[in-house]
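Known limitations

Files may contain more than one protein. Parsers should not assume a single record per file. Below, a two-record file is shown to illustrate correct handling: read the sequence, read the C-alpha cell line, then continue until end of file.
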Amino acid sequence: MCTRYIAPEVGDIERLWHVGAGQPWRGGEVFPNYSGGFIRAGRQAGGAARELVQGQWSLIPWFAKERKLKYPTANARSEEMAGKASYKAPWARGQRCIIPAAAFFEPNWESGRHVPWIFRRADGDPWGLAGLWASWTDPASGEIVESYTMLTLNADAHPLMCRMHKPDPKLPADRQDKRSVVPIAPEDVDTWLHATPAVAKALIRLATADDFDAGPAV
C-alpha cells in the first residue's frame, strides 16, 4: 500500500495533463487524510473535459456519518473495488481520477528493517496514478468534502514491486499480496476518465520495471 507521495507543482500538472492553469496549487508531500490534488472529468455542461480538484486523500464514502473514518481508505484494492461498500458506487458511476505524483514511496524490508524507497518515472515526468473520487456532504454542517483513493494491484509477480513491503514468512512468494500503485499512461487518460467501467478496467495494470527510477530514499 502507498501511504506517502510527492505532488508535483501545478505547472507540471498543466504541462502534462492540460489542466490546472492559474490555480494556486503547490506541490509537496502528501499523506493519508492530507489535502492533495486529483484530476477528474469535468462535471459542468459545456466545460472542460478535465478539472483539477483539491480534496482529502482518503475517500469518504456516501454512508459515512463523520469525516474521520475508523478504517483506512487511502488505498483501494482494484480487484475488490466493484464489490466493496466504500468504493463500489464511485466505480459504478465512473468517478475515476488521475492522481499526479512526482514520486511515491514504498518500504523495502530486504535488510530486515524498514528502508523507504522512492519511485520516480524513468523519463522524469510525474506519474499519473489511477484513483476513485467521491463528494461527501457533512450531515452536521452541510459542507461538501471532496476526497479520493489510490488504486492498487497485486504485484507478487512484478520483478521490482514484489521486493517492497514486509513479507509474511508463513506464505509463499506468490501469495504475499504485495501491492503496487496503478499508473495511467498520458494517452489513456481520457479513456480512464470518460469510458465505461468495462473499458476502463482494462487499463488497470502494472508499470514495467523499465518504467521506474527507484532506489533507497536519501
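...continuing to the second record:
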Amino acid sequence: MQEFYIGLMSGTSLDGIDAALVDFSANQAQLVGFEYLPFPEDIQSAIQRLSKPDALISLKEYGAMDARLGHLFADIVNTLLAKADMPASSIKAIGSHGLTVYHAPEIKFPFSLQIGDPNVIAELTGITTVADFRRRDIAAKGQGAPLVPAFHQAVFQHPDEHRCIVNIGGIANITVLPKHQSSAVIGFDTGPGNTLMDLWIKLHRNLPYDKNGAWAKTGNIDHDLVELLKQDAYFNSAPPKSTGKEYFSLPWIYQYFDAFSYKAEDIQASLCFLTAITICDAIKEHAPTTERILICGGGIHNEYLLELIQQNIGCPVESTEQYGLHPDHVEAVAFAWLARQTLNNLPGNLKEVTGAIDSVILGGIYQGNKKGAASAPADAKHLHPCR
C-alpha cells in the first residue's frame, strides 16, 4: 500500500522552500514529486533582518512573519499536490522544518527557533503537520542539530563501504556512515557552508550567491588569512557541535581582520577555501577511513567549491544523485521521513550525533482535517538503502 508524506525544508541559505512528495511503501523513500518556491525579495530582506545576531525586532513583526511563512509553506504543498493530481486525503502527514531564525544550543537556557506556523499549514492544507523538530532534542540536552544524519543512515549506509555524507547549505555538516552497522554513526556541523560566501557577494556585487564559484575563482586564496580564520574556537572544538548563520556572519569576518584592506575577490576565494578545508579537515580527523564522499545541498552547484574539496581529500567526491536522491531533494525528503518517525512513535535523532542523553521522538503534531488519510505500517523504522 502506498504511504505518502510531504517534507518541507527552508535552509540557512534563505533562498526559498523545498517541498518533496515521498512514497515510503516497501520501506524505501521514493520521490514522487518536488516543488521549489523562491522567496520574494521583501521576504528575504525581512528574514535576513530577523536573523541578525543583534536584531531588534517587534513581536508584531516576528509574529506576522511566522504566519506569512506558514501561508507560503501551505501554498507550496497545495501546488505540489495539484501538479501530482493527488488529494490531500492521500497524505499521511507533512514534516515541516520551518525556517531557522536563531540557533543557540550553548547558552544557559538553550534553544533553536524556527518560524513558519504549523497551525496555518495544517489548516490551509487539511493535512496533519509535524513541526518544531529541534527543541525536543535540545530538551534532552542535545544540540538540536544536525538531525538529517538519522535519515542519511537509513538511505545511504552501505555494508561494503565507509561513507561520509556532506550536506552544504548555509552551514555545512557531515554524517559519518561506517560500513559496519554496529558502529556508531556520528555527525556535526563543520562550520560555514555557503553563508559567508553569500553574504560577501551580496555586499560587494549585490548578487544572492556566487554561481559556480565563478567570482571566487577570479581571486587568489590567501592561505595565511584562512589559517587565521581557522583559529576560531568552533573549528577546534570537539563534536557534538552545531552552529548557524547567527555565528558565522559578516561581524565574524570583521573581528578577525580588516576586510577592506584586501581585494574583495581574494576574500571570496579565501572564504570558499575555508568552507572546503574545514569540511576536509573534519573528515580527516573524525572519519579517516572514509572511502567515498557524497555531496548534497545547494553547495553541490558551486563547481569551484567541489574542486577544492576534491583537491584536499583522498577519496572520490560524488553527488548523492548517483546513489538514489538528487542533492537538492535530500533534506526535504529527510523531513518527510522525520514526520513518519514521529507518527510511528519512533525517535528521529541520533544521540551520538546531537549529544542528547537519549533518543527521543521529535516534533509537535498539528492535526489536519482531511478524512481518509492512509495509515502508516507498524514496521516503519527501517528503510532499504537507495544503493
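Parsers that stop after the first record will miss the second one. For reference, the second record is described as follows. The radius of gyration is 20 Å.
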